[in-house]
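Researcher: Structure prediction, please.
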Amino acid sequence: MDTLYIRIYNTSPTPKGIKDFTVKYDSASYQTTVNAPVVYEEQVALKAFNDYTTHNTIYKINPLKAGTYTILIGNNKSFQDNGQDRDVAVSQLIISDAFLSGSINIKPQNEFVYTGLLLNRKTGAPYANEMVELYQLRNKALPKLITQLKTNAAGEFNYKSTYSPKNAAYLHNHMLLLHGKKR
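Model: Predicted structure follows.
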């Protein structure tokens, strides 16, 4: 393989326009696509090796705005994957200046308190006294606002629920939206 082909799609969810972005594979044409807007495409020339050993390449993609991205990487410019000599790999990437650390405290009467800490990754400063909205993501529908929360001076917030954290998938279909000043 002498060239690597890269295509990056913006698959960011938003509260006003949720869309189910998926990677699609057409078994007739072997085409791999994503039903999302393309941010950019590029190709990278690779050094040729004839020693029949595995080689690795580290590549830095162009800077991207905060959001969720799906990246297709292929050894052919048409992004076909036939399971033989044409291959496509898929990766997802989330870019954010916000760092979220969470914990769960279990109280009597089956009350669960989810505690979150929001920090700015670049500066380490807390997102102090900021509004945060918790949404439930739903298939092919707009996200449902569950609650509005406010962080304290240390960047912490609490969310009380009667839904058990033993159901591991509970928060996987939720999204936090941080309102605030650009930092």
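Model: The radius of gyration is 21 Å.
Researcher: Thanks, that helps.
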